[in-house]
Amino acid sequence: MIDDIRAARELLSRHLPPTPMWSYPLVDRAAGTSVLVKHENTQPVGAFKVRGGLTLLAGMSAAERERGTVTWSTGNHAQSLAYAGHVFGVKCTVVMPGGTPAGKAEAVEAWGARAVRIGDSLEDAERYARQHAEETGARLISPGDTPELLAGVGTVYLEILEARPDLDAIVVPVGSGTGAAAACLVAAEVAPHCAVIAVQSSASPAAHDSWRAGEIVERPNRTAVAGLATGRGFALPQGVLRDRLADFLLVSDGQIAEARRLLATAAHTLAEGAGAAALAGVLSRPELFTGRRVAVVCTGGNADPAELATLSGP
Ligand SMILES: *Cc1c(COP(=O)(O)O)cnc(C)c1O
């Protein structure tokens, strides 16, 4: 897998410059330690997932590209595949639950993809996407169990650890766990002394609870933080996280909002909730991080209207 991540980096160098990574004195002061912020919010489509989408489509055969892709998502995964479809000229269909805000469908359609809003839940959307794949021959892309996506998003951790091999810990927000799994694989190879620590919302703890239980579990999915919202663990990332992840923290949606405000005021950074969750994890557990060199991944900046409205205070 590390070879796939290195190959993805080579390939992505033609499409994406490395993202910046900076520290900020007021963030350090709040955290009581030295914190580097990796700015994946500066990617096209505003999130790290674009690394996965581009890697996946770059590796598809001409025949596969001809048939197109179909996936289910409400957010950044959808935008990533839509953007990659635009770059490689591949037809992309994204199935979203019927209640998804129009703005999210528009963001996908703006890249030339087709958005289908149908059903009551992400599970309904997944079912429809599977049916569409069977009927049309389009390739079905699971947001959580696709090795090419894992290889692509792993490149962010190569960038971080090659720039700063002295890091003690990297803190990663988790939805499906793909990003955190990639971080573990890269750290094991490039900086084995660096601990990878995952963070999820306590309102949607399926990945956390799956990791603690050592088996895939389903949990209520009540977080308002879009990138972290999942009701089940995914087998591919959980299999990687099982032995390699150093720790897994839960934070509340309120703590995540607090971290968003700190990034806005102290790091001139617009983070969506998921993009601030790693920092929320660091702020929530100073005893784990004090005196250690820590990087947090600001995974995305697509703050929704509710997140924008609470930037000025709770
Ligand atoms: C998808 C997403 C996450 C979670 O990543 P996984 O690889 O699904 O665990 C975190 N932050 C943002 C901004 C995302 O879009």
Automatic annotation (TrEMBL):
Protein role: Catalyzes the anaerobic formation of alpha-ketobutyrate and ammonia from threonine in a two-step reaction. The first step involved a dehydration of threonine and a production of enamine intermediates (aminocrotonate), which tautomerizes to its imine form (iminobutyrate). Both intermediates are unstable and short-lived. The second step is the nonenzymatic hydrolysis of the enamine/imine intermediates to form 2-ketobutyrate and free ammonia. In the low water environment of the cell, the second step is accelerated by RidA.
Family statement: Belongs to the serine/threonine dehydratase family.
EC number assigned by the record: 4.3.1.19
Keyword Isomerase listed: no
Pfam families, alphabetized: PALP (PF00291)
Catalytic activity: L-threonine = 2-oxobutanoate + NH4(+)
Xref: SUPFAM superfamilies: Tryptophan synthase beta subunit-like PLP-dependent enzymes
Protein name in UniProt: threonine ammonia-lyase
Occurrences of domain Tryptophan synthase beta chain-like PALP (ranges): 13-300
Entry's Gene Ontology BP terms: isoleucine biosynthetic process; L-serine catabolic process; L-threonine catabolic process
Cofactors demanded by this protein: pyridoxal 5'-phosphate
Keyword Lyase in record: yes
Enzyme class: lyase
Organism of this sequence: Actinoplanes aureus
Gene3D superfamilies membership: 3.40.50.1100
MF (Gene Ontology): L-serine ammonia-lyase activity; threonine deaminase activity
Record key words, sorted: Lyase, Pyridoxal phosphate
